[in-house]
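Per your request, structure below.
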């Protein structure tokens, strides 16, 4: 059963040993992640399905990493001390793969490493969930509707499962909010982030999926396909959206949003 679902950003600077003084500039995000962690803990999840844009990307297939366990570190970002470890959830992972493969391309991979797109949110969210199982998923470059449809298939297995499942769609918004941003500056960045949030607060999922592809592309986001999967999972539930924080002082939009089932 689905017990929790949320959108999280994944900048490595959210990790205190990496962000150092810069972390003060994203304190709303830090605060929101800490609050989200408490809400997740209260939901008593057995397993977290985490969708990352930065795992093993296969352009024309979704990818599910099924390994006996997983490790994450932040050595690529200069942090040689922080280490995370997680167990897998093989039964549910295989059922998801079987459910999806009849309708959409999905590939199983097997790696004990998880990428920062998964590891940064998990660093915050699993502080008090030491026994948690995870299922790392990576989206594809298939179109947005395929991602929404993937979410609908995922929902069927989540709903059938006796496990208490949390779903985290990891992704950042625009990467071009200011001069010197990772993708350079474009006014389309702020336009995309604003329009997305307006539609999200109205729970207008069809409206989000119909956003102009050119605007999405110009915004240089990495989260839209992650979010489209979450929308496919959540759309038939009754839910409220709580946009807990949004900010982008370094030119990348970071949004924390909790989808509360009612
Ligand atoms: Zn990203």
């Amino acid at each position: 059963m689905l017990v929790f679902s949320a959108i999280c950003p994944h900048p490595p600077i959210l990790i205190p040993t990496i962000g150092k003084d810069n972390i003060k500039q994203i304190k709303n995000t830090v605060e929101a992640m800490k609050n989200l962690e408490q809400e997740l803990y209260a939901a008593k999840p057995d397993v977290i399905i985490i969708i990352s844009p930065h795992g093993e990307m296969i352009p024309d297939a979704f990818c599910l990493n099924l390994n006996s366990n997983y490790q994450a570190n932040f050595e690529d970002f200069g942090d040689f001390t922080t280490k995370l470890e997680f167990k897998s959830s093989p039964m549910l992972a295989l059922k998801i793969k079987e459910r999806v493969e009849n309708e959409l391309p999905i590939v199983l991979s097997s790696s004990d490493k998880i990428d920062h797109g998964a590891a940064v949110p998990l660093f915050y969210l699993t502080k008090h969930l030491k026994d948690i199982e995870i299922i790392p998923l990576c989206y594809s470059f298939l179109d947005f509707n395929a991602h929404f449809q993937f979410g609908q298939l995922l929902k069927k297995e989540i709903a059938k499962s006796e496990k208490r499942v949390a779903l985290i769609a990891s992704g950042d918004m625009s990467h071009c909010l200011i001069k010197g941003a990772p993708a350079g500056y474009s006014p389309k960045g702020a336009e995309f982030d604003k329009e997305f949030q307006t539609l999200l607060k109205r729970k207008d999922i069809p409206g989000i999926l119909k956003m102009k592809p050119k605007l999405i592309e110009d915004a240089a986001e990495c989260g839209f396909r992650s979010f489209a999967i979450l929308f496919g999972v959540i759309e038939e539930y009754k839910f409220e959206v709580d946009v807990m924080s949004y900010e982008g002082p370094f030119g990348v939009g970071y949004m924390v949003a909790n989808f509360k089932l009612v």
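The mean pLDDT is 97.

Regards,
D.
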